Amino acid sequence: IWQTVWCEFVPAAGYITKLLPVADIKNNRVLIKPEANVLDRTEILQVNVVINVNQSKNCQFKNRISKTGSIGRFIPVKIPSECLLLWSPEEPSLYSLQAQLLNSKGEVVDSVDSYFAMREISSGFDDKGVPRPMLNSKFVFHVGTLDQGFWPDGIYTPPTDEALQYDIKAHKEMGFNMIRKHVKVEMKRWYYHCDRLGILVWQDIPAVVKQHPQSSAGEFLDEAERIVKMLSFHPSIVLWTVYNEGWGQPSDELATAAITAKLRGIDPTRLINSLSGINFNAVKPNYDIGVGSSIDIHHYPEPGRVKYNDFRFSVAGEYGGISYYIKDHSWDFKRCHGYGPDVESADKLITAYQNYQNQVGEISEGDSYGISASVYTEITDVETECNGLLTYDRIFKVEARKIYNINKQLVDKYAERFQQTDTDTSTTDEHGLNRDPVTKESGLFELKFF
């Protein structure tokens, strides 16, 4: 069991089951949709939401904002402009939120403490007319890794909550601003840590490797719908990936388009990648069906080249796979393999990584392919896959700072163009995470499995 399981007593009249916050930045407001299980049908229950907006130095609004509405309907809450803090990987600002379930007498029957972020993700065009993913109406280049979320002792289950945070912090230490969570749904606490630490998440919908028989297509869609609904609370998630390399993809392109449209209808607030790796399309290889927010290519070891089209941005969805084996920190040293070149030292790994990221920078330009995001394979070794930047037991193979400096060049290239600069000059944030990491010892810990 890798998902969270718990038991709790609930009030006899009813209880809150879910909160869905949706940021409306243009109108300086958040829309909160509460859902509840009403057990006493004789009671007419309402929900009161209470928000603490006094989290900015410029905010002079000292009182909490309170507003009452109906179960199952969005409750709009206005945020004073001087109190508005936008969420980003650099500044993952979260507002505290309390929802109170009220009976007909106005008495609090149940209450839930939660949070939300003022964050919008969309597709748009840059100053050269190239389609790009927009974070709060500004283009941010997504530099990420493939993260499968495996652990040596628990497989899908991390040993501790500290371990659960470890890979996220490792990404931040190395200058990545995005994680592609590959064919796994993590426990919700992992997404909470992504929300508060500040990392963009691309979430895969897990699927079987082979094409779905017609009889199981309904089950896949049902699971996909439940995944999207379950995780839609989290502001760190900015993109859903429906299919990976044709795994489980229907051979009918209309079916793929229909499933993509169905999920986009459930969550219109996020981007959607219909097929990660169009060159592995189950309909026919190298065929772009033309749906979703992005066009995504997989290529090893060099990053693939696919040009944006119309309104969809282009993505180097998988590449890299540089293999560097550390004998005493390998699952099965004799069977170690990767998807890219084998190197014999940390310095050679850095050199190869620098080469690939330089290529990403070149093809990211609008007069080239206009790539807007890159997903390097991968963050950690996984059993006999030895192409991680960390070993399976989470030991850094290279100095974090060296990877950080390479990635920072790519992110800053567009941050400067669109005047996205971090004005905070402190070296650490409230979570003790170094903004200017030096080595693996800076704020991280070592996990021992072998």
UniProtKB/TrEMBL annotation:
GO terms for biological process: carbohydrate metabolic process. Residues 162-275 form the Glycoside hydrolase family 2 catalytic domain. It comes from Aplanochytrium stocchinoi. InterPro entries: Beta-gal/glucu_dom_sf, GH, GH2_Domain-Containing, Glyco_hydro_2_cat, Ig-like_fold, Ig-like_GH2. This is Glycoside hydrolase family 2 catalytic domain-containing protein. SUPFAM superfamilies: (Trans)glycosidases (SSF51445), beta-Galactosidase/glucuronidase domain (SSF49303). Residues 58-119 form the Glycoside hydrolase family 2 immunoglobulin-like beta-sandwich domain. GO terms for molecular function: hydrolase activity, hydrolyzing O-glycosyl compounds. Coiled coil: none annotated. Pfam families: Glyco_hydro_2, Glyco_hydro_2_C.
